Amino acid sequence: MDNDNDECLLFVDDSNVWIEAQKFAASGNSHMPKLTGRDHDPRLRINIGKLVNTLCSGRTQRQSYIYGSRPPPNDMVWKQYEKFKFQTKIYDRSSQGKEKEVDNSMSADMTEEAVDLRASAKYDKAAEETKKRTVFIVITGDRDMLPPIRKVLKCGIRVELWGWKSGMAKEYLKERNTNDCLSVNFLDNIFREVSFTNFRSTRTTRVVPAYTIVILKPEDLAEETWNDSFVARILLQSGRLFYTRLSKGGPEMIVEFPGVKNIEAIIIQARELFGEKTKIMSWPIYSSRFNKDISEVVETSNMFLPLENDSQSSSPPPSTKKESQSPPGNAPGVDEQSGDQEVQNLGRNPDDEEGWEQVKSRSPPGKAHGRAQRGTQRCPHGQHCGAGGECGYIHTNKEMARFRDYPTQNFKKWKTKTCTRIGCRMGERCPFAHSKEETWCLSCNDQGHLTDDCRS
Length: 456
What we know:
456 residues, alpha/beta, Rossmann fold, 7-stranded parallel sheet, 4-stranded antiparallel sheet, 29% helix, zinc, zinc ion binding, NYN domain-containing protein
């Protein structure tokens, strides 16, 4: 049979695509340097249109499905999938922030589509020909999806499984060796074609002096050469997570290194990378030396790319005056996927704002000094911080990891109740207390007893 006549149904586990993609981007592959002290790169984006086109490879795409959880990384993500013939299946997370119903829904849809197709093919010759041309393209690596995939194969329908090497269950490789209708493919091999890195900050513009440096354009460098893509290419060699911001028409490039403990070490490293002709300094020194206020230097808007920017892209989204709620550093689940891609995956010309959504910042410039002080102090609330990833104080890596893993969790109530789950294996990751030592009192903000037992 001519493969060009194949008809593809796509079943996509959204979190499997982008979470593993961010881990791959930070791992030190052939396209990007390894990130220091981080297991994922939140700047990584997936170009949905190119992903679909690459997987279908010239074949016809039929009704497809995308599965994910609320809160969505960005409503535009689901709209973009819908544009490419996807039916979105979005489910609420558990109270602990875990995904629920996603695997079961994906399993049910695959099985239903396969069984219906097999039943129709028994009595209809045209349906039989359709069944022969049908290919299920499944993006997952989760072993839990093995039973429905086996069911599809038993119905006589070919399956192309795609996933990341790091997340691919070895049982699929064994199954492939015993069934010619199953092929296993790795997204690692098409990473460069379907992804890019967005170095432009996507959260509400807010300079945190303790994490920020300012790079001035060398006098002998042409204006058209100096942009955030140029700066990003050089800073990539540092192996650090950073976000770039353009100043308001000046030669300054403002670069934030989220959570860095020693900004002076970053400045020294940046000076080595850029050379002696480039002036680099910390934000406090820059702002005091040049008598600059944040409102004079930074564009007070939140900009992010549309989801997909190729010839099939729809018109730019309407602007909104509603403030972005994206947490610092683009925590997982926020602004997950966008579009546009250059060689080296370095984004677009910052002067071209077509298709950008702009959200005005409500962060008063006069609070910059207070933020600078908070950025050098340990958060007094620790794991029980109500601001979570938005907090301007310093949090430990373990605390930040929990903020990312449980985006909907109210951490003010972390460990304030006793766990009632029999045989709970989550240990310290469980939001409920497993011992007296873990309990937290809301009245006196202290450990060792529950609120009802407080004597203060």
